[in-house]
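Hi Y.,

Following your request, here is the sequence exactly as I used it, all 82 residues.
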Amino acid sequence: MMACPLLALRSDWDRFIGEPDGSDIGGLLHAHASTRRPLGPDAFVEALEQRLQRALKRQQPRPKPRQRDGHTLELFEPPEQR
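Below is the corresponding structure, written out as C-alpha cells. Let me know if you'd prefer a different format.
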C-alpha cells in the first residue's frame, strides 16, 4: 500500500492525529460497531442497502412470533391426524 496520496492530503499527520475531535466520534464508532450497522449519511447507507440487497438501517421492532409447544398442537389437530 502506498501512503503518498495520503501524505499529499495532510502535510503534518502527527499534528492532525493529535488534534481533539469536536464531535463524539469515538461514541459513534463504538455504537455502530457494536450494532454492526454502517456509519455514514443516509445516502451512503441507502446505496449500501441497494448494492447488498438487504436492510442495514434500524427497522421498527416487531413482536416475536408466538410458538406453541407440542402438547398444545395436539389439542387442535383432528383425532385421525394424531
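Residues 25-35 form the longest helix (11 residues).

Thanks again,
Q.
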